[in-house]
Each structure stands twice: as C-alpha cells, then as structure tokens.
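lol ok so funny story. i was supposed to be doing the assay writeup but got distracted and ended up predicting the structure for this chain instead. priorities right. anyway since i did it might as well share w the group, maybe its usefull for someone
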Amino acid sequence: MSDVFSLPVLIGTAAAVCSITSFIPQILKIIRERNAESVSLRMYLLTVTGFTLWTLYGVMLHAWPLIVSNVASLACSGTALWCKWRFRDGEPAKG
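and the output, tada:
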C-alpha cells in the first residue's frame, strides 16, 4: 500500500478537512445575518493564535501537511474573526 493511502495520512487528512470546514457554517451565518454579536471574540482570538502557532511549528519541522492544513484553518478562523469585527454591532452604517 502506498504511503499516500496509509492510515495516518488518511486520519490526518480527515482531521484537516474537519478543522478547515468547521468554520464555514459560522462564517456563512454571520454574513447572512450581518450580525456577529453572539460570536465570542476571545474564542476566535485564541483560535487564530493557536493556528498561527501550529503553522510556525509545522514550518520549524518542515512538515508541509501540518503547514498547509493550519494555514487553511488560520484563513478560515481569521475570516470569522474579521466578520466578528466587521459585524460586531450588526449591519455597519452605510454612507
């Protein structure tokens, strides 16, 4: 069996997909409702910090799967954090 289809690779890929896609429902809800009052700023600050540290750890180890999955998760959690800031008080005033 190829290393590409080994159990650790499959488990790692599934974990990465779950981590990356877990933010999408929250982001879509915020954008759809244009309101992020119920989103925890502290939680997303901590999450963004965690994915940043995991990415740096992956860079130090030269572990590309770790780097790629955490950069993607960082982008998603960073988007959620940006949405929290953008829609923190509901729809921003136009004008």
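The CA atoms of residues 41 and 84 lie 7 Å apart. The longest helix spans residues 64-86.
back to the writeup now i swear
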